[in-house]
Amino acid sequence: MNDSSKKEGDSLIPADEKPELRIILLGKVRVGKSFSGNTILGNDLFHSKPGLSPVTEKCQKEKRKINNQNVVVVDTPGLLSIDQTEEEIMRKIKKSIKLAKPGPHVFLIVLSVRDKYTKKVEDMVKSICDTFGKNTMDYTMVLFTRGEELKGTIEDFIRRNENLHELINKCDYGYHLLDNHPEKVPELLKKINDKVQAEEGSYYTAEMLQEAETALQQTVH
Fold first, then answer.
1. Model pTM?
2. Domain residues of the chain, as ranges?
């Protein structure tokens, strides 16, 4: 973890309550980000419907108390959209950091087990890393959706694609598979909470985003 990451003390939190957890969902259009957000929070808070056109037009924040913990989820517009340029979408996505202030504990890059990990998706992940900077992978987990459609194990699915395997290895928070089983959500939150605790509450900050923007400008000029 980078030294400039912030850490949260829990001295002001009641004994039975856990520190707030903040999550940002990232991924391409129609991959199931909003559906994942609803699954995590156990409620239809994000607009989600089957189809080809993007549903999430701008960042949306929702919060719910789960097992004595406030869980904040920020949904973001889908990347690889034919309706907008990547630059326009990224400009909107960057606003998610303010919505998750003081900063997200984890970025969930949402991938579907239905889809191959193509060069296009690989480039999208690179674009996310360029936007959020050198610290991105310190705060990233890959969240696989549609687990009920998976033939074989998720480990085999990852191993079959060298580039996907490489991405998972870079993610400090690893990966998690979501399917129709409700117990997968507590497992996911436990996995994230354990890691946040191990990192003493460290989270991604607005300063890191600023650093990333400066670095990007320097590569352009």
1. 0.90
2. 18-220
